[in-house]
Amino acid sequence: MIELNNTTKRYDSLTAVDNVSFSIRKGEYFALLGPNGAGKTTIVKMLLGFTRPTSGSLSLNGLPSTQADCRTAVGYLSENLHIPPYLSGWQYLQRCAELLEISRSDAMDQCRRIVELIGMQGREYTKVNTYSKGMIQRFGLGAALIGNPKLLILDEPTAGLDPIGIREIRQLLESLRHQGMTIFLNSHLLSEVEKICDTAAIINRGKLLVKDKISAIVKDGEALEDVFVMLVKG
Amino acid sequence: MKMKKALPPIIRIAKYTLIDEVRQKSFIIMFVICAIFIFLVRGCYQGNYTVNGQFLDAATVVRAVSKVTFHVIGAGVMLMTALLSMRVFRRDRDDGMQSCILSKPIARWQYVTGKIIGMWALSVLFMFILHSIVFLITSINLQVVMPEYLIASMLCSLNLLFVVIAVLLLSLLMPDIVAFLCVMGIGVAGLVADGISALSQSQMAQAMLQQPGAHPTSDLTVWKSIYYLWPKLSGAQQSASSLISSEAFHGFGPIYPLINILLYCLILGALLFRRFGKEDIV
């Protein structure tokens, strides 16, 4: 489903991603972990074709990431999500559905179902400039779910959410597992990752340190956090 | 088949661009100012005008005033288009719409085409409404029907396409306000050059050029080439307005400025697609 082959991204003298290779199979719940500035978001941006790799290649759904068609059935939630302040959450979801060429009646049904799923009933028609960061994040996740994507790329999906919101998002992501969805998760919340994902990769300063099943990365009696700190600090 | 599949996202992006721009306060303010101007111009039609002691007939006055109004509206809408276009990409980036659109199976060329069409449609519509108000005033109040006024308005829309593409391209390379000023500078320089060219064709200027010690011919050829190749924004507007007054067009002929602008649109458009293709999406 996702493949990175010797991918490198340089910004002048800074190497953001250094010769990284890994692949993610269909139906896998994958977490990309790393400290701030490790290159996680750069990998996501390269996957979505937002930026081009300096060398190497990336593919989504078997197609090069430079082709627009590779993003068919892909939902994306960005790290610093912004929604036009003059739109309502409902209008934003509708726009996302229209861009995916979903018919009007289907779009209405899907948006209604998603508003319920993200727990925003009653607030969907108010303007985005009245929303909190957490509410915007929920609508962003809702927008990523429009069109029943097969792959979800989530960059810090729980950023700005309170503990109850984090739990709700976790439960929502767990419920999507039964639909055979593949998830690519960028997150700092290691405890959440441990609960949701089956596989993880840890990168630091653009280099891939490990990529394996979480059960293989975390030994008995250890927490993912301990392994993460140990690997990153060397 | 491929083109058929590519069209719906372009139309949607164009629609969102149009809707989002109309929501901007700056657009509403500019629209109100222009509407006030048009209604103030009404008074100019009702005066009695004399040239060399002779009264001008109503039809001549109407055509002359309408032509001036035509140019003022054309220039004003160009200014407004440049002002709105300079922030199109930035606003989309800041509002998160750029990453939202491009994370869908939509190619960058479709996004840019949608933006160009949206901005162009908005400015053409805006200019056409203003020109139509003048057309209605002259047709209903003054009984002078000038269908060519509306045709001229449509021809002038080519200038707006140039402004949209040029400002969008330059806004990717430099600060927005500089991009706006550059495109306005191109327009003003063209206007001044047209003025100088018209003056140089006068008898006095011809006599001065033939005097010994005047500028060498090679210098003039360079300037003439630059003038010839410079974006003919005012020339295109003049050639469109020549339809209104049925005057003979002086200069390169009525078609050249339009072809010049069309070629610039194609060249700058190609550069815009190429530049945006390399842009990092935030």
General description of the model:
The complex is a heterodimer of chains A (234) and B (282). Chain A has 234 residues and is of the alpha/beta class. Chain A has helices at residues 40-47, 89-99, 104-117, 133-145, 163-176, 190-196, 214-217, 224-233, and strands spanning 2-11, 14-24, 29-33, 55-60, 63-64, 74-77, 151-155, 182-186, 199-204, 207-213. Chain A has eight helices and ten strands. A six-stranded mixed sheet of chain A has the order 6-7-8-3-9-10, with helices on both faces. A four-stranded antiparallel sheet of chain A has the order 2-1-4-5, covered by helices on one side. In chain A, 45% of the residues are buried. By secondary structure, chain B is mainly α. Chain B starts with a helix and ends with a helix. The chains are: A alpha/beta (234), B mainly alpha (282). Chain A binds chain B through residues 45, 48-52, 68-72, 74, 76, 78, 81-86, 95-96, 98-101, 143, and chain B through 8-9, 12, 16, 20, 23, 94-97, 99-108, 110, 278, 280-282.
Short description:
The complex is a heterodimer of chains A (234) and B (282). Helices cover 35% and strands 26% of the residues of chain A.
- Share in helix of chain A: 25-40%
Order of helices and strands of chain B: HHEEHHHHHHHHHH
Distance between the termini of chain A: 31 Å
Query: What is the N-to-C order of secondary-structure elements of chain A (H for helix, E for strand)?
Result: EEEHEEEHHHEHEHEEHH
Number of strands of chain B: 2
Major sheet strand order of chain B: 1-2
Strand tally of chain A is: 10
Structural class of chain B: mainly alpha
Count of DSSP H/I helices of chain B: 12
How many whole angstroms does the radius of gyration of chain A measure?
18 Å
Number of helices of chain A: 8
Shape of chain A: globular
Mean pLDDT of chain B: 87
